[in-house]
Amino acid sequence: MDFRLRESSEARRAEVRAFLEEHMSLALEERVYRTGVSHDAAFTQALVDRGWIAPSWPVEFGGQGLDPEEMVAVGEELRLADAPMYGIGTTNMVSAVILAVGTDAQKTEIVPKALAGEIVIVLGFSEPEAGSDLAAAVTRAERDGDEWVINGQKMFTTNAQIGDYAFLLARTNTEVAKHKGLTMFLVPLDQPGVEIQAVFTLSGERTNIVFYNDVRVSDAWRVGEVDGGWRTMTVALTNEHAAGFAAVIDRLLVAAESWARESTDDDGVSRMEDETVREALGRTVIDLEVSRLLQRRVAWMAEAGETVIAEGPMSKLFSSEALKDRAQDMVEVVGPDALRSYFDPSAPSHGVIEHMLRFSLGTTIYAGTSEIHRNMIAQRGLGLPRSG
Amino acid sequence: MEFRPSDEQLQLVSTFAALYGKESTPERVRAAEPLGFDQQLWSQLLDMGALSMAVDEEHGGWGATALDLALVAEQHGRALGSAPLIESQVACRLLARAGGPVATGLLEAVLAGERMVTLSPRPPKAGWALLVPAGAVATDMMIRHGDTLVVVPIGDDRVIPENVGSLPLADVPAGEPVLADADVILSGSAPEAIDLALDDWLVLTAGALAGMAERAVEIGVAYANEREAFGQKIGAFQGVGHPLADMATASAGATLLAREAAWAVAEEPGRSAQLAAMAFAFAAETARNATDVALHIHGGYGFMLEYDIQLYYRRSRAWTNVLMSPAKAVRRVADKRYGPRKAS
Question: Is B245 close to A375, i.e. CB distance below 8 A?
Fold first, then answer.
């Protein structure tokens, strides 16, 4: 066994760190927070210039062919710095689906622009009545000659206001079982009938509700088979090899350690001397390491060609729940100063601990709630029967 | 990164798994209660080289890595081995590190199966070394006397308390005259030597507790797949399946962390003490919680002595707390990471 990353991975880490020192700043971090938009044109362009917009992609498609382990190092550094990667992440995810199941025309039109950082693709999956149960989507797509007419409402389409296309899950058949009547489309957002309504969230991230009223989309923008949308979705979701929040726990730890070293109690004694502080830090150190191991194991399995079953859900479930618990602990340990807001000038560690309290809540909900992940672990990993 | 043990390690694991499968069945574990010592299992472990592997060639052993030992410890925990395997390995490694005529002679006798030496992790209190692990079956006890590490024979005046984990513990007389006359293993550096031994102890016990947790989850899953209520297998209820999913996740994490901590002994010595405490704290809480969940989903049957899960529940508490509570281990993580508190 070897728990170190290879030298090539550590070399990538060092490169990303140097890049972030140049292109990531507190001012950018604050702008991302204040606007709620985790996407920045200049930062994206810098990534493109460096060839890092999709580093895991094969070289012939414009990537750098980094393997899962190298991507672990790259991902950890970007997350630790809270770099504005969300728009790039969704764009890449959809581009990968198009590469896998899209038409040649779609590949030619979308992939080069995505890799040049010229377009942003957003996700239109959830609906008011379909969250964890995505296959219950009722947004309709009805055929009209060479076009489809879309009507419905999508929740949590983050970055829709700057997006060029929405990757949309729509119902095309109501006569069959719910998983079998869905189709995926790439819907150009700059057209009549698309109405974007901002939704502000507890972490500061802006997301949107998007209304589709008689929106017309050419059949050329259908991704995958008619009524084969669930299979296309599966491609999209399994591309998320190593989801986990270890690096975000690291961010909390770095902030908490610097607070503990720099602040003192009422008697002028360093908070690092306080047993309850040390215990909270120790627990964070442990949860960070376990999260890292669970996440890295998934990357290692992908590289070793092993089938990932419950290991991916374990990584997401453990790290998000741990982040939430440790952030809560840390707020209590820091005391009243922890209430000072993220980027308030008076806040310790520029308020990262306060932000983590709010940010962590979303991590146990989006990309599959903890309950959905527990179901997957119970059924696929442990072989327990399905409920109901 | 390489998350798979080597072929040799997998072979080692399967050899020990076979031994435990034969010599540490639930029936044998029960039969060894309340003392918690199975002579036949112990003899087999010695024959297999379970102690010689813990020390290097120079000291008469075959120099397995700490990771090898941790992988064996996982099997020990899975099977609830009624034998002081880890206690003895820790003592052997301490004796090997100490060197000198007393330690060397003792180590030879231990490896030959003539003596059994244990370490009291705590200094004496009012003339007694209390709850000494393996004290009920060992022939000798190492203990701190000021800054000196001494070894005293364990006599018939030891007191063997019945205990929740059916561990072979003993309260051993260790008054000032006894310690003052005892053979000296180390003069002057006992606290550091004991602290290093404690690192070994924590990391190997972490492996054992992780194995125990994994097995407890398997027992719980098997029961949830078999027992029916309200017309379906109870594993289909999220109230049953979700806690098991959480415990399977934590057990996987505990196993990975214990292995990393053991690997670090040779590969990242600067971080291994911190990792040992981390691994112990996490494995201890995981074994505690996993045995609780697995017992609880058995309903009333889990409360019956007849079902095996209670054997796991009791030992998870005992194997942990005889050394240190999880909370104390977390504070040890901080001590190793940030240095000790100035006040202490």
Answer: yes
